[in-house]
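Sanity check. The docking grid for nicotinamide-adenine-dinucleotide depends on where the pocket ends up, so I'm generating a full predicted complex first rather than guessing from homology. Inputs follow.
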Amino acid sequence: MIFSGSIIVVTGGTRGIGRAISLAFARNGAQVFAAYLSNDDAAASLVVEAGGLPGSVVVIKADVSTTEGAQKVINAASQESGHIDVLVNNAGIVKDGFLAMMADDDWDAVIRTNLYPLFHCCKWGVRRMLARRRGSIITISSISGISGASGQTNYAASKGAAISFTKSLARELGGMGIRVNAVVAGLIRTDMTEGLKQDVVDRIVKNSALGRIGTPEEVAAAVLFLASEQASYITGQALIVDGGVV
Ligand code: NAD
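Predicted complex below; grid placement will be based on this.
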């Protein structure tokens, strides 16, 4: 078990891609701290599902787009040991719509939820990595942030920023033994994509080399690779996991 005893924080870690990441780390022996915003049932069911695994999962209700919420999660995770090993910035939302009709609130909510946690969680998380001069930060971005997507100016702006944030922080922290990478996901089957119109899904699938939607587990596998010693010379990268769309 390659993450035995490692302390992992996963924001948005109780549903969809984040849930698969939490379970994959726990399957590999890690102590996972999964932050979530509001769905208590999903959080409770994750704890049950993780019950039989070699590692453990603790769920923490906190809004990681605020400094208080981010501190709450990082403090809980590092309370016993004083450090964290891996931070996965996964929490995110969509509020799609054409720009000319987009409500101010929909712009604000997406930028706030997808971008602010990178600042707050990394700021407090890095402080729990510096003393040991080791750690890994992985942020979940989207191919919308690379290629753009009609109806997703807010989302694409936040996900493009996640990549430039990653590259800058990697340069800042490389000398301190901390690696910073992004996983750039394509279309993945989760609650977030459930409401997509079938013709939109069909178009994306048709444009992909592999000709199918991805699974949360396939994104989780890339996250675990980047967090592992196998990726010890990889930092500042945006690893695209999209079945060959971009
Ligand atoms: P999801 O809706 O299934 O899960 C999102 C999670 O984020 C939930 O657990 C929710 O509680 C949490 N969350 C939202 N706001 C939060 C906040 N302020 N504080 C704490 N937690 C918060 O979505 P998903 O599809 O699993 O997406 C996960 C990540 O992957 C997102 O960043 C998303 O943008 C990205 N992504 C998803 C896809 C896809 O096709 N599903 C593609 C590319 C990127």
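Relevant for the grid: The longest strand covers residues 135-142.
Also worth noting: The pocket of nicotinamide-adenine-dinucleotide is lined by residues 11-12, 14-18, 35-37, 39, 63-65, 90-93, 113, 140, 142, 185, 187-188, 190-193 (CB under 6 Å).
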